[in-house]
Every structure is written in C-alpha cells, then in structure tokens.
Amino acid sequence: MEYLGYFFSILIGVALGLIGGGGSILTVPVLVYLFRIDPVLATAYSLFIVGITSAVGSYSYFTKKLVDIRTAIVFGIPSIIAVFLTRAYIVPAIPAEVITLGTFIVTKRLLLMGLFAILMIAASYSMIRKSPVKKEEESGERKFNYPMILLEGAIVGVLTGLVGAGGGFLIIPALVILSKLPMKQAVGTSLAIIAAKSLIGFIGEGGDTVIDWTFLMIISAFAILGIFIGSALAKNIDGAKLKPAFGWFVLVMGVYILISELLK
Predict the structure, then answer these.
(1) What is the CA radius of gyration of the chain?
(2) pLDDT tops 90 at residue 191
(3) How many degrees, rounded to 5, is the angle at CA 60 between CA 52 and CA 251?
C-alpha cells in the first residue's frame, strides 16, 4: 500500500502540472487510506504538501508574469487568516464525538472525512462539466467585486483549514468571474494563493501535533517530481481534454470515501 501511496503522491503533482489543479484533492485520501494516517493529522500534512507543491508549480507562472499580485493579495489575505484560525482554534475544538443521533454517532473523523468527500464530489462536477470558452480579457482597468472576493476568500480558507485541500476548483472560477482574470492568469494566481494559505495554515497547527518530517518531505518530493512530469507532458497533451476523465475519478473516490466512512 505504501508503494501505491508513493505512486499517487506523484500523481498529485502530475495532475497539478497537467491540468492546473485538482491534484491536491487526492492528498488526504492518499494519506488516510494508503498510509493509514489519522484524518486530523492527514489534513495537517496535506496543508504542507499542497503548499510546497503549489509554490513550486507557481514559479513558472511568476516567470511568465501570469500571477496577478493585486488579486492574490485581496483574495489571499482573508483566506490566509481564515485557514490559520481554523487550524489553530476550530479543528482542535471539535470534540471526538460531535453529535449522537439515536445509535448513530457523528465522530470527528466522520465529520472531516464526510466534508472532504462532499468537497471531492463538488470538485469533480467542476472538472466534468464543460466550461464555455472564455476569451482573453481586453486590456484596461478591471472592476473588482471586493466584497464577494473577500467573502469567498474567507470561505475557501475555512474549508482548506478543515479538510486540507487547496480549493483550486473554488478559487479559479472566483478569480475568473469576480476578478475578470484570463484563465491562465487565474491558474497562476490560484497556485500562489494556495501556496501561501496552505503553508501559513500549516504553521497554525497546534504545538502538540507530532510531525514526521522525514515522511512529509519524502511525500512532498514525490509530489514535486509529479509537477515536473505533468508540466513536461502538458507541452504535448491537452490537459483540458483529460480534466473530465480526472473529474470522474475524483467523483468515484468521493462517493467511495463517503460510503466507507458512513459504514464504519
């Protein structure tokens, strides 16, 4: 199972480099089901892996001037604050048994993994559906919907803090619709935002959390290797055509996680 886990760790980066997002949604399932790591600790590990991998992935976008710094700051600040506070205060405050409904007990694990599965299903929909082709924005000053950008930034930050996923499937549409960014620039800006909020969220992890740094760096190295592979493949393969197939894979995984956690 560990060897399979290392393979999927590479796939996390490949997906990120090839289709510009979605790979981070695999991180927690890989850690929980293949490496048998506790879900709460897995969400913390995921923040680091997603953060460092996205940072490496965003470098090429920076060099090509495809990262909108202004938008990254406006969207990123509430997101960073939200993810930090979520990891530092909300996650530790969730009790081991959240609620009891008759003989059915909603545990902390079920709450986090159930929320994660629902997030995976939502992410799969955004990958499977065909988005209308959007023309590159014309030059000129763009009008920002600041209230909505700040609100969505905070919401994405809370979700990232709870489940450890980057939330690129939420960020990219928000940047395109609310900030009027061209798609390529939205992807680059999204990676920069994900890197910052994930790494800072990881810093907000409680001091009593025991981190296996050797394991964490190995998995991160495999994911980063995957980014380089994905970026190389992207030169010859149209990532947009692979996105729906990856979306179906994520959907199946999301449904599997939801069912398996409910039946535990």
Answers:
(1) 18
(2) no
(3) 60
b/e burial code for range 141-162 (CB count within 10 A of at least 16 → b):
eeebeeeebbebbbbbbbbbbb
How big is the CA angle at 124 (ends 119 and 127), to the nearest 5 degrees?
130
- Residue 46 pLDDT exceeds 60: yes
Closest CA to 29 of 56, 9, 53, 51: 9
97-118 per-residue burial string, b: 16 or more CB within 10 A, e: under 16: eeeeeeeeeebbbbbbbbebbe
Q: Per-residue pLDDT tens for 76-132?
A: 889 889 988 888 888 888 898 888 888 888 888 888 888 888 888 888 887 787 655
Q: Kindly report the number of other CB atoms within 10 A of residue 257's CB atom.
A: 21
Secondary structure (3-state) at 98: strand
**Contact indicator for 198, 54 with CB cutoff of 8 Å:** yes
Spans of all domains in the chain: 2-130+142-262
- How many CB atoms neighbour CB 199 within 10 A? 18
User: Tokens standing for 223?
Assistant: 């994911």
pTM over 0.90: no
Q: What are phi and psi of 106, to 5 degrees?
A: -90, 105
Question: Is pLDDT of 219 > 90?
Answer: yes
Give the Cα separation of 163 and 118 in Å (integer). Answer: 11
Cβ(215)–Cβ(9) under 8 Å? no
Cβ neighbours around 2 below 10 Å, total: 9
